[in-house]
Amino acid sequence: MVRETRLAPAQLIAPFFVCHGKDVRNPVGSMPGVAQLSVDGQLDREVGAAVELGIRSVILFGLPAQKDAVGSENFDPDGIIARAIHRIRTRYPDVCIITDLCCCEYTSHGHCGILRGEYVDNDATLEILGRAARVHAEAGADIVAPSGMMDGMVSAIRSALDAGGHLDTAILSYAVKYASGYYGPFRDAAGSTPAFGDRRQYQMDPANAREALLEAQLDEAEGADMLMVKPALAYLDIISKVRDLSPLPLVCYNVSGEYAMVKAAAQNGWIDERRVVTETLLGMRRAGADMIITYHATDMARWLREEGNA
Ligand code: PBG
Ligand code: ZN
Q1: Is pLDDT of 309 > 80?
Q2: Is 297 helix (H, G, I), strand (E, B) or coil?
């Protein structure tokens, strides 16, 4: 009765990596329990399991057949991401479909934007993001989630969506995203390790907290519908500060490296997985996150049901 913070399946967002091919389930070595899934029964089964447990939202990451300098498959209406959106929209009409809107899964160089020399050209990238957002919306995405930390991305995407008639497609901005070592396993899963350099040109310095507030304010002013802080575990103070600053719904991303650490320790019998995951996700909610993107989503929803909380 006096418990201050609660966890519910509806607050969890389940990530999925979608790939080409038939009946493919490629386990990601550094993320036990996570696999790249083909857009057929493989994807249906895992989305279905999440939905059955009360999860209402998914976030999708596409693995293209071909990578090129501008990441063309991201804005190809017949590309992997468009096909996955369409499949889920058809099979599970009530699921809230969020798409990761970045270039790095689709570019040959693995950076989050179009290159000019060795640097990402911020403004040239905005146009590409607008095109991709329209394709995702057209395929049936409810929310696009730009994760590239380009300046002005939210307003550019909002204009592109509106011009395409997608007035009701929302934007979840990865507003506060740090240049983090915790993304390592994800880059295996998505094949998006930068071919050279790192992401410090556009992602934030882990030492900075005030800058997080500036990033959040800018995205709110540009028309973001929801904000995100990422990673989560080492940035609970940032979640709390952004919560105090902005009335927008706040999402945090319990990222791949956070997941991998828990899984590895649990597999060694060094921690109690269920207890640690529950405590971690509750901590993120307590810090101020309304919703959590987590690879533990389906497990957590199952544990909540077992406890009679869902
Ligand atoms: C793409 C993107 C990344 C993640 C989500 N979207 C990787 C990165 O920025 O390098 C990381 C997610 C995770 O680690 O689970 N920009
Ligand atoms: Zn990216």
Answers
A1: no
A2: helix
DSSP 26-60: EE-TTSTT-EEEETTHHHHHHHHHHHHTT--EEEE
Residues sharing a CB contact under 8 Å with residue 293, sequence separation 6 or more, in sequence order: 13, 15, 59, 228, 251, 252, 253, 254
From the CA of 259, the nearest ligand is 1
**What is the pLDDT confidence band of residue 308, given thresholds at 50, 70 and 90?**
confident
Active site residue 177: yes
Q: Which of 148, 169, 164 is nearest to 219 (CA)?
A: 148
pTM of the model: 0.98
Number of H helices, E strands in the chain: 10, 12
Contact partners, residue 269, CB within 8 Å, separation at least 6? none
Return the H-helix or E-strand segment holding 144: strand 143-146
The DSSP 8-state label assigned to residue 97 in this structure reads: E
Q: What is the pLDDT of residues 238-269, one digit of tens each?
A: 999 999 999 999 999 999 999 999 999 999 99
- Using the mean position of ligand 1's atoms as its centre, give its distance from the Cα of residue 192 in Å: 8
Q: Which residue from 30, 102, 150 has its CB within 8 A of the most atoms of ligand 1, so it is best to mutate?
A: 102
* Residue reference for tokens 């307590």: 286
Q: Write down the architecture of domain 9-306 according to CATH.
A: Alpha-Beta Barrel (3.20)
DSSP H or E run through 298 = helix 297-306
Which runs of consecutive H residues, i.e. helices, occur in 92-144?
122-139
**Beta-carbon neighbour count of residue 297 at 10 Å?**
24
Q: Position of tokens 């609970």?
A: 236
- Asked about 22 being catalytic, the answer comes back as no
| SS3 label, residue 173 | strand
Structure confidence by residue, pLDDT tens digits, 84-137 = 999 999 999 999 999 999 999 999 999 999 999 999 999 999 999 999 999 999
- Could you tell which of 147, 180, 188 is best to mutate to test the pocket of ligand 1, judged by most ligand atoms within 8 Å of the CB? 147
